[in-house]
Every structure is written in C-alpha cells, then in structure tokens.
C-alpha cells in the first residue's frame, strides 16, 4: 500500500525547474509590477495595456 | 512514477483555467466599479491633463477597449505563470498535509497561497480603483505590498514546519496550536507594517470604492483557490494511476 505522500516523494525536481519558476515570477512581475525599472519607456505601454488587470488583482497602481 | 514535467504541465493548465475564470469575473463584476471610478477621474480634470497617465481621450496610449481586453489577458498570463510556480512548490512540499489525498493537498495549498499573497495584503493595503492613488508614492506602496506578500508566504511555510514539529501531539492540540500561531503571526504583520500612505479622495463614492475592493477579492479568490482546485483535480487521478502501475509492477 503506497500512500499519496509516498508517491509524491518519488517526484524528482530537476534543476531547470527553478529556472522555469523564476521565469514565472518574472512574467508575473512584468505584467503586475513593472513601473519602468526593467523596460524603461516601453513599460508605460505595458502598464496601460494591462491596466485593468493590475487594479483588479489589487496591485498598487499609479 | 510522477515526473516534475507532468506536474508542471498540469500547473500551467490549472493556471490557465483559473485565469480565464478570474478574467470572466473581471469582465462581468470588477469592470462595473472600474467604469464608475474612471467617470470620477474624468470629471476631475479635462482629458489628457494628468501627467503620464491616460484612460481614454484624445492622446490615449491604449484605448479603453484595449485596456479591458489587455486587463483580462494579463490575468490569464499571471494565472499561467502562478500555476507553474504553484506546481513547482507543490512538488517540493513533501510535508504539506502529508498523508492526505493529492486533491486535499492541492486545495489546502491553493487556499493557503490565497491567504498569504491575496487576503493578507488585501486586509493591510486594500485594492484601490482608478482615481485613487498618488503616483508619487507608487514605489513605496509597491515595496510595502511585496513585503506583506513575502511575510504571508513565510507564515505559510512556518505553519507547515510547526505542524511537522507537533506531529507527536493529538490532532486537536496540533490544529489549535498551528491556528493560534498563524493568527498571532498575522496580527504581528498587520500591526508592524505602516498604514497605507494614500488618503481616499473626497470625490470617490464609498460604495464604488468597496464594490471595487470586494470584486477584487472575489477575483483573487477565483484565481488562487481556483488553481488549487483545478490542479488537485488534474493531479489526483494521475497520481492514483501512477500508484496503480507501481503496485502492479511490484506484484
């Protein structure tokens, strides 16, 4: 009898998984937080395009 | 044998599905107070006179229609990205509700993540609609917001650690101790962080403000709890199949 936890502990998390997760966090940052730090002038267009989503998800905005 | 890749793909799928659900809540619910708030902003100054920011008018950078579509697209993209990170954290979280079914583990994890990265910041720094917020303080407010999010995630991690440490205790004692510790830590975070720096302008109707805040919370719950539920549904049968195969092979 294998418990669910036992089968999960068999999951090996490869190193690239951390790179993939970092990418996920960067994408989240660009959509929700970018205020000009990473993209400079392009960020204003990005900010305005995702505007309603930023407000709706409760992220501080302008 | 469950592979990380199979979990990651299910995380992306769960994030996409919960993101679409959250985007629909935005279109049908949150856009109503956003529209009312934009009317307040419009009434305040002639179009285009606010520095570096526009919501329509002659010199608009992005049209209102594009902002609605872009906002929904942004929620879906964030859902997919969070789903991927969620799957990785799930794969690493060996002690989180160990012994429970994968669905229970995933659902409880989604609910905890909602509490840490959405409900806690919402309690301390409630979401504000357009026409509220001083552009001068946006970086300060962003730092405070991210600080609360990090504090919330630390509380979830510490609760899991404490639950593991108290494994020798009876279930009621263990649950009560963990809940009390989480409540105390939450109170400390709420008291330690400074008050929100922005005052609500007098021309913003209170009902619009709170309709927006509650819509925002509903949308966040749809996204995060949704990821936990959908990921649990996707991962549970898959894990059982993998176990069945292992059992078969060992016979």
From TrEMBL, chain A:
InterPro entries: CbtB_put. Keywords: Membrane, Transmembrane, Transmembrane helix. The keyword Transmembrane applies. The chain crosses the membrane at residues 16-32. Pfam families: CbtB. This is Cobalt transporter. It comes from Lentzea cavernae. The lineage of its organism: Bacteria, Bacillati, Actinomycetota, Actinomycetes, Pseudonocardiales.
Automatic annotation (TrEMBL), chain B:
Pfam families: CbtA (PF09490). Keywords: Membrane, Transmembrane, Transmembrane helix. The chain crosses the membrane at residues 7-29, 68-91, 103-123, 143-163, 175-196, 216-235. It comes from the Bacteria. This is Membrane protein. It comes from Lentzea pudingi. The lineage of its organism: Bacteria, Bacillati, Actinomycetota, Actinomycetes, Pseudonocardiales.
């Amino acid at each position: 009898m294998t418990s669910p936890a036992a089968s999960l502990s068999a999951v090996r998390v490869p190193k690239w998984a951390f790179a993939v997760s970092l990418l996920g966090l960067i994408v989240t940052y660009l959509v929700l937080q970018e205020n000009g730090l990473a993209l400079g002038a392009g960020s204003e267009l990005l900010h305005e395009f995702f505007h309603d989503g930023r407000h709706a998800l409760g992220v501080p905005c302008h | 044998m469950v592979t990380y890749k199979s979990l990651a793909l299910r995380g992306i799928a769960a994030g996409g599905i919960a993101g679409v659900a959250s985007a629909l809540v935005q279109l049908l619910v949150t856009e109503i107070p956003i529209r009312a708030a934009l009317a307040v902003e419009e009434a305040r100054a002639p179009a285009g006179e606010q520095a570096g920011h526009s919501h329509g008018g002659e010199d608009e950078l992005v049209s209102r229609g594009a902002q609605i579509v872009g906002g929904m697209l942004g929620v879906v993209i964030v859902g997919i990205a969070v789903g991927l990170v969620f799957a990785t954290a799930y794969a690493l979280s060996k002690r989180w509700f160990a012994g429970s079914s994968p669905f229970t583990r995933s659902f409880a994890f989604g609910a905890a993540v909602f509490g840490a990265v959405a409900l806690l910041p919402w309690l301390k720094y409630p979401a504000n609609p357009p026409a509220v917020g001083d552009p001068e303080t946006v970086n300060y407010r962003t730092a405070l917001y991210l600080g609360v999010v990090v504090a919330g995630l630390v509380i979830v991690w510490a609760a899991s650690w404490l639950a593991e440490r108290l494994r020798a205790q009876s279930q009621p004692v263990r649950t009560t101790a963990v809940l009390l510790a989480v409540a105390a830590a939450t109170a400390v975070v709420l008291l330690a962080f400074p008050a929100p720096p922005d005052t609500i302008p007098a021309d913003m109707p209170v009902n619009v403000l709170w309709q927006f805040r509650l819509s925002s919370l509903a949308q966040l719950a749809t996204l995060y709890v949704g990821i936990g539920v959908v990921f649990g549904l996707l991962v549970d049968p898959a894990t059982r199949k993998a176990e069945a195969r292992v059992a078969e092979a060992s016979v």
